[in-house]
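Lay summary

Proteins are chains of building blocks that fold into shapes. Our project writes down both the chain and a compact code for its shape. Here are two examples, one after the other.
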Amino acid sequence: MPILGLAGEIGSLLAELKKRVREPNRAADTGNNLIAEELGDITWYAVTIARRAKLDFPRNVLLANLIRTQSTPALYVPDFGMAGLRHRKTHIRPLMGAVATFGSYQRKSAISARLGHHDEAALIPYLARIWKNSGEILDIVDPTTPTFSKSEQRKIAQALGDVMWYVAGFASLYDLNLDVVAQINAQKAQSMFMPVRERRPTPLHDDDDKALEQFPRRFNVDFVPADNETAVMLINGMRLGDPLKDNAYQLDAVNGGKIDGYRFHDCVHLAFVAVLGWSPVIRGLMKRKRKSNKLKDDAEDGARAQIVEEMIVKLTHSYAVNVDRDKLLKGRSRIGMDLLKQIQTQTAGLEVSANKLWEWEKAILLGYELFDRLRQERRGRLTLDLRSRLVTFSKVSVAVAEQFPGAA
């Protein structure tokens, strides 16, 4: 529900700004990216709530707010509401340009704001008031009713206007342009929540590289046990990488008969190959590093990129275990945005940063579906198809490992 989402994002903003007050050096350590992200999320939820309440956001929310605040410049002002817009048409025309963009609203709303440039002394009462606004919205709306009465529309329009007035003030306080904040947030939302019918995969990152430096567009990888505790990967009977153990304390008897299974975690790397067209780790194991392009070989296929990928797999594994140690992410259709944002931060500057968040979500969910299947079967064949961006699982017989003595 977007109203709960708005309250949650305002709470996150308060948490970050509270730390700024408590820790004077935090701004230097973290910059203003976190604040920009929270302001963008608040704006997105505010627009979504207005749309569901059938409000014209620029006119009923932003413009109405300017009329109220500029008529009585104070933290809280009398409600002119939408009726006030009808009876004050002379005010509307010259002010419409003031809400043409979020940035123009930000500049215009600063006229009535008392939160001056870098005026952190006024921050605490402003934080209290924006939180009060979110509570008012929660109090106005009956969550069991999908429609909004005229009275609820007016109250929501005013409360959202007040929220946006504080959002604009916080943006100015921290030298942020609300247009840029909103644009980045819109790109994030599109990257994550794009309708399935409109999704187009990011082009494979090695499409323009030499054939022998590309990932094969379709190939099989067999996971077979070398013994009760060790698994190996095979491509055409040749071992890929080193034999792996779980390297964990969990034993079958302790875990209800299901092994920890980290020995199979390379299936997540393989899901990255199929869905994202990216895996410095698997590229290195397959001897497909792009040696003919020194820059790519170093920056995209080198040790640093491999470490980033291994870190992402460990992050996703910890996330999956916390969701459900027994099933991992089996049956799940969504990944937490916080995890995806962490991944986005870690991959900044790499070619995979071009991939959209929904692609990461698909890759992670697919990778852990395969992971859980391999934990159950303890062996299996993964067929990767990079053209269709899929990996499929099929069973392999116990005899497969015996056919390839080099596996052990």
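And here is the second example, written the same way.
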Amino acid sequence: MFAGRIQWFSELQSTNDVVATLAEAGAAEGIIVSADAQNAGRGRFGRSWASPHGAGIYASTLFRPDAAVFRLVTLAAGVALVDGIHAATGLRLHLKWPNDIVTDGTAASRKVGGILAEGGAESDGRPWVVLGFGINVLSASLPRDLTTRATSLEHELGRAVDRGLVLAECLAALSQRYAQLQSGDRQAVIADWRDRAASTLGRQVEWNDGAIRRGIARDVDEHGALLIQTDTGIVTIISGELQWL
């Protein structure tokens, strides 16, 4: 899907912004924009994403999914990135809803990568999704204030990592998982997400819906929403901020 459609830059403000501009101009899905550095990389809720030069993978791609699978693109991407990293390095990582790639499922786990999906629609209502992802590769890639919450592939492996190989394997896995969604095989994608997130499901979470609430993250539904067990029953979280306890 992505072969021959990669645009590489030494430095950008944000790969997501560039792909969003291409999407609005009618670009076909599958185009990839990647950069050695970002000056304004961001995560969810507008948080900054540290993107020092040559230290990580910073890339975005464009999908034009069927409306029925629109909300599952982020989950499929998480599965793909965990699988792509494993194929390139042998490192087994885990998923934490909705978009974190982490070392394990404990409260002490550290973040290795993340996904930011930003959407829009054509004039006929057909949706498009810009899916950006960042992966910390080099051991020295992290600002000092993040070292207790984040880590890198090289730190976890104790050896050098080929960034190009990791990106290639992640793109191959993304293409395969997206094809699964588009073919209607949503349940296989969800089942594989549950498998990669098994160590984080079962943890207590906290969120604010006008008051602070707590519950146990149990599962995801067929649309990728998180199901939380509370004292009063199951609560469905489609989006928003969660604190994992």
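What can we say about the second shape? Helices lie at 15-24, 73-89, 153-157, 163-182, 186-196.
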